[in-house]
Amino acid sequence: MKFSIKTKIVLAFFIVALLNGAFVFGYYQFYLADKFMESTQAIGKENAQYRQQLIEEIVALYPDEGAITALIRTEAETQGIQMTVTDLDGHEVAATAEHREGSALLQTKEVVRIQGEAIYLIDFQYPDWYEQVKPMKSLLLLVIAVLVLSVIGLIFYLQSHIVKPLTLLHTYMKTFHFQNMKLPKLERRQDEIGELMKDFAEMGQRLETSHNEQVDMIAAVSHDIKTPLTSIIGYVERLSGSKTLTEAKKEDYYRIIHRKAKDIEKLVEDFSAFSDMEHDTLKIATERVHVRSFIQSICTEYEEELQAHQARLEWTCQVPEDVHVELDMKKIRRVFANIVHNALVYVSPPVHLRLSCELEDGSLCISFEDNGEGVPDEELERIFDKLYRVDPARSRAGGGSGLGLATCKSMIEAHGGRIHAYRNPLGGLGIYFTLPL
């Protein structure tokens, strides 16, 4: 059977109260009561011995009634009891100053005999020890009642301050959605419940941010693929629908279609890398690479593409000939591809690119600069955020996927390096990253 926390708390406190009450009552009933009975029996025995001794003293004083009266009053004051001595006809011979009748007294009578003949009758009145213990029993019942009431009060307190807030939080979590981020007033509490609500609110904000990123990504995929795809469809329709196109024109169309297809391929690669980063599946397979040869191959690879975009690349490598570095060539080539592509998208012709590499503090340091308008200083760190794009007005080609530089950062950091952006002397954007040797 499944119990709610409310039921568990009520049952727990009820059981605790019941056990405490049973313990107190049992302690009184089976321990204190027995002790009381033993004590009462001992007192009764002592009283019997005392009465026998007193009778012997009265016999010794007989028939001096004045002496007997003095003895009775002295003993009554000393023992805290009341006594009355009468003859066989009921006439009072001696008595204490006070003689009471009531249920709060234990009474017993003794006969004074001299040589077997009854002379006096003594009436003894003792305080009733059981009656004296009654207030203790009442106090015990009061303690039990207070305990029960305290438990009931505590249950109501926990119900209103613990169970009810948790129930509200549970209900809110079940009905949570991004269009309703309003939290109950519980988050104003300065205790664990309030902290829990604050943590849940922060989690909701993170989920909303993630949700918005997913929506933006879907919109980016749709827009960035639709643009080149529309161009491809248009040129294919021209090629298939026109019989007057010259061979030179067809070659131009094929070249454009190929370039647009490569743009789509680049977008797919960006989103694939994004998926790897999101699922933390970006794997690095390093190999020992000769630095100067690797940098030269990178620059040679982009010569033809850069010329087609009215761009030129200047590069310098101040690294000794014998220096090697451990890296994943495919991933680092992707880093260079993303940086070059970013420059070609955001820099208007003629494009001037400058690449340099050197050794510093046991790391290979590479900087890449362009002559574009650059990025505002307050946005330099944000360009490495996923799906971040600068002002579309700064892009001559509608911008990229917003994942290129984020992918670069992920790949560089996976190698144990670091990357940052800066405004370079040419006025454009500079990208600086390091790779440990």
TrEMBL record:
It catalyses: ATP + protein L-histidine = ADP + protein N-phospho-L-histidine. Keywords: ATP-binding, Cell membrane, Kinase, Membrane, Nucleotide-binding, Phosphoprotein, Transferase, Transmembrane, Transmembrane helix, Two-component regulatory system. CDD domains: HisKA. It comes from the Bacteria. Its EC number is 2.7.13.3. GO terms for cellular component: plasma membrane. Residues 220-437 form the Histidine kinase domain. The keyword Hydrolase does not apply. SUPFAM superfamilies: ATPase domain of HSP90 chaperone/DNA topoisomerase II/histidine kinase (SSF55874), HAMP domain-like (SSF158472), Homodimeric domain of signal transducing histidine kinase (SSF47384). It is a multi-pass membrane protein. Its main location: membrane. Pfam families: HATPase_c (PF02518), HisKA (PF00512). One of its GO terms (molecular function) is phosphorelay sensor kinase activity. It is found in: Cell membrane. The chain crosses the membrane at residues 9-30, 139-158. PANTHER family: SENSOR HISTIDINE KINASE CPXA. This is histidine kinase. It comes from Paenibacillus thiaminolyticus (Bacillus thiaminolyticus).
